Amino acid sequence: MVEVRDVIAALLDVYPVDLAEDWDTGIGLTCGDPADRLDRVLLALDADPSTVDEAIGLGAGLLVTHHPLLFRPVQSVAADTPKGTLIHRMIRCGVAHFAAHTNADSAVGGVNDALAALLELTDLRPLVEHADGSATGSGRVGRLPTPMNLREFTSFAAERLPPTLPGVRAAGDPERELRVVALCGGAGDSFLPAAAEAGADVYLTSDLRHHVVAEFVAMAGHPAVVDIAHWAGESPWLERAAAMISARFPELTVTVSTIRTDPWTVHAPSPGG
């Protein structure tokens, strides 16, 4: 019989903690007994009321997410707080929670490799290498199999990524030819300079700000920028992580949540936009 600790060990083998960013404090087991036995695992990007309900409804003994539930230090997980409510529900219903965050971003086969594969990029390398100079690191840089302009690439990304209400937007000359793509799943504005230094024609990431993007693309030689929904850029990793768990523990039922936990729920196009 598989125990919670067995799946955690497999996840940490593929996504080692030492690949995480120094500031990342939310990795690991949030709640649950490592010795509990498992029949089913659910993977989702976020631990929120909808995915916790899904885990309980499925009878999953472990909920694996990319985003930590307790990312910042807290003084209480009382049941009258939003996160405390989730933790109490999971404990009462026998659902353990584990998060693989920036360690899954940087690992080979992790979040950024999954995003690069979705965009059909080849000749991948880290955007920012780890100190050990291995193939691990933050973000990725790769080549498109066929050059396309920014307008075409924006549409291509929208077609390949999981659908979200915000969709995909770009900054730069729509007719600019693109060959080299830099990317970072999740919030990647801190790597804008690295994308320029990498010689990328375009940088794809999430959670970008108006002035930062405007000033960046105005600089001669800088790449164009494509802004995608945070959820869309990271959720393709879930299928890879699920496949790894299934391969190592074929006796488990491993499910990837289909719930879209992107926070944006309404979109109204601007007339004439």
Overview of the structural elements:
By secondary structure, the protein is an alpha/beta fold. The chain folds into two domains: 2-104, 3-Layer(aba) Sandwich (Udp-n-acetylmuramoylalanyl-d-glutamate--2,6- Diaminopimelate Ligase, Chain: A, domain 1), CATH 3.40.1390; 108-233, NIF3 (NGG1p interacting factor 3)-like (Udp-n-acetylmuramoylalanyl-d-glutamate--2,6- Diaminopimelate Ligase, Chain: A, domain 1), CATH 3.40.1390.30. Helix content is 32%, strand content 26%. The chain has helices spanning 4-14, 49-58, 82-93, 102-106, 111-118, 150-160, 192-197, 210-217, 230-234, 237-248; strands at 2-3, 28-31, 37-38, 40-44, 62-65, 96-99, 122-129, 137-149, 168-171, 177-187, 202-206, 224-228, 253-256. Strands 7-8-10-11-12-9 form a six-stranded mixed sheet. The chain has a five-stranded mixed sheet with strand order 2-6-5-4-13, sandwiched between helices. The longest helix has 12 residues, at 82-93.
Features:
single chain; about 270 residues; alpha/beta; Udp-n-acetylmuramoylalanyl-d-glutamate--2,6- Diaminopimelate Ligase, Chain: A, domain 1; 2 domains; six-stranded mixed β-sheet; five-stranded mixed β-sheet; 10 helices; 13 strands; globular
List the helices and strands and how they pair.
Layout: E1 2-3, H1 4-14, E2 28-31, E3 37-38, E4 40-44, H2 49-58, E5 62-65, H3 82-93, E6 96-99, H4 102-106, H5 111-118, E7 122-129, E8 137-149, H6 150-160, E9 168-171, E10 177-187, H7 192-197, E11 202-206, H8 210-217, E12 224-228, H9 230-234, H10 237-248, E13 253-256
Parallel strand pairs: 4-5, 4-13, 5-6, 10-11, 11-12
Antiparallel strand pairs: 1-3, 2-6, 7-8, 8-10, 9-12
